[in-house]
Amino acid sequence: MLQEAEVAPNYAFQFLHPMQITQRELADAIHVPYQRVNEQVNQKRGITPSTALRLGLFFGVSADFWLNLQIRWNLYKTQQAEQDDLAEIQDVTHWRQMA
C-alpha cells in the first residue's frame, strides 16, 4: 500500500525553501499564475502536464517525474477512499472457480 509521505505531489515543492525560491518567483519563472503554484504546494490543485513540463525545465528533471508524483497521489487518495470496496474484489483465478 502506498504511504502518503511518499506520494504527495507537494513533496517536491519542498525544494523551494532550501533553494531560497518563493512560490511567486517560481510562478514567474515558469510563466504561470502565482495562484496555481500556491494551490499545488498546498495540495488544492493537481499537477497538469503543462505544469509538469514547466517544472521539469525549471528544476532540470523530467516532466514524467512531476506527473508520476501526481498519478501516485491520485492512486493513494483513491485507494484510501475506496479501501472497503477494493478489499472485496477477488482475482480472476478465484472468480473463474466461482463460475
Automatic annotation (TrEMBL):
Keyword list, A-Z: DNA-binding
PROSITE patterns linked to this entry: HTH_CROC1 (PS50943)
HTH cro/C1-type domain span: 21-66
PANTHER family: ANTITOXIN HIGA-1
Top-level lineage group: Bacteria
Species whose genome carries this gene: Marinospirillum alkaliphilum DSM 21637
Protein known as: Addiction module antidote protein, HigA family
Pfam families attached to this UniProt entry: HTH_3 (PF01381)
UniProt xrefs under InterPro entries: Cro/C1-type_HTH (IPR001387), Lambda_DNA-bd_dom_sf (IPR010982), Toxin_antidote_HigA (IPR013430)
GO function term, MF aspect, one: DNA binding
DNA-binding in keyword set: yes
